[in-house]
Design goal:
Helices cover about 40% and strands about 10% of the residues. With about 130 residues, the chain is an alpha+beta fold. The protein has one domain. Strands 1-2-3-4 form a four-stranded antiparallel sheet, with no helix packed on it. It starts with 14 loop residues before the first strand and ends in a 16-residue tail after the last strand.
Length: about 130
């Protein structure tokens, strides 16, 4: 496992998945380290761009093809609306994925448990 995906507090690689908030969208779910209890989110892989950029390019190339071919050759006046929709979808995919990659490119620590302290004589009730 990559060092970037390990627990930022103790370096442990064993974890449990945590539930996300209802109003939160994440690509990589939160994790709780089994060793120390730190809740963290690992960074998003930049390889996500290898999926999203070609998808946006396909949408954009369809829009360019539709506009350059024109309604006369295809025979449908609504081709410009479809081209605009395809271009908008491509732009949204590219903008949304870029935003997610930039927002989650660094890992984030959500909570760190308090360290356990040594037992003191006053912690125990009377003998």
């Amino acid at each position: 496992m990559s060092a970037k995906r390990a627990c930022p507090t103790c370096g442990g690689i064993e974890y449990r998945k945590q539930k996300e908030n209802e109003n939160e969208f994440v690509v990589v779910p939160r994790r709780e380290c089994k060793a120390c209890g730190t809740v963290y989110s690992p960074p998003v892989s930049p390889l996500l761009a290898l999926v999203t950029v070609p998808l946006a390019l396909v949408c954009g190339s369809f829009a360019v093809w539709a506009v350059t071919t024109g309604a006369n050759k295809i025979g449908d006046e609504n081709i410009y609306y479809m081209a605009g929709f395809a271009a908008a979808c491509g732009a949204l995919v590219l903008a949304f994925s870029t935003g997610i990659i930039l927002k989650q490119r660094n890992g984030k620590v959500h909570s760190v448990p308090k360290p356990k302290r040594d037992a003191q004589p006053w912690d125990k009730p009377g003998d």
